[in-house]
Amino acid sequence: MKKIFLCFLFFVTLSSLSGCGYNTIQLTDEQTKTAWAEVLNQYQRRADLVPNLVSTVKGYASHEKEVLEQVAQARAQVGAVKVTPELVDDEQAFARFQAAQASMTSALSRLIAVSENYPQLKADANFRDLQAQLEGTENRIAVARNRYIKSVQDYNYAVRRFPSNLTAMAFSYKVKPNFSVENEKSISAAPKVDFGK
Questions:
Q1: Could you give the CA distance from residue 164 to residue 174 in angstroms, rounded to a whole number?
Q2: Helix and strand element counts for the chain (H, E)
Q3: Whose CA is closest to 142, among 38, 53, 28?
Q4: Euclidean distance between CA atoms 100 and 137, whole angstroms
Q5: Among 33, 50, 70, 162, whose Cα sits 20 to 30 Å from the Cα of 9?
Q6: What is the CATH number of domain 29-177?
Q7: What are 55-92's pLDDT values in tens digits?
Q8: How many Å apart are CA 35 and CA 145, to the nearest integer?
Q9: What is the pTM of this model?
Q10: CB atoms < 10 A from the CB of 33, how many?
Q11: Nearest to residue 57, comparing CAs of 114, 103, 136, 134?
């Protein structure tokens, strides 16, 4: 009778574990890590393009010192953020990473805008190639970020959904931060278009 009871208890325990969500949490956590690695890979690709882009622009627009310094400073800020796998679990560190990348995006936008004032620079084959690579990288960053956002959504859902939320609490799995818009008010306002010029 005792063996039957133990077997019954074993099967009840086994069947209850099948719905605990542990494997789902593990799967979504790994997918999140993989997506994050791709985000970092694309941001690193962009950071690697910056010195070549800056040196090319410097040759034509050396008196645009302020813009060139802003790009260099933004790249230094990106490099100063310590990127570890745990970064995606720390909301403040994640926010610092996002702010540094936003600063880099802004500085690169100003650099590209400055290049519009220099026809010789725009005609330079190296600059055009670097600009095309940068645009392609920005697109890859957007795709990688979207994949990461989706994987974090799946993970966060698994961590908060019942009964897997009980397993998540037992193993200390917490909701991961996700990318957000820097200034939501600025994107909610319609852009001003002036055709008067």
A1: 12
A2: 8, 0
A3: 38
A4: 17
A5: 162
A6: 1.20.1440.20
A7: 888 888 777 788 888 888 898 888 888 888 788 888 88
A8: 8
A9: 0.75
A10: 14
A11: 114
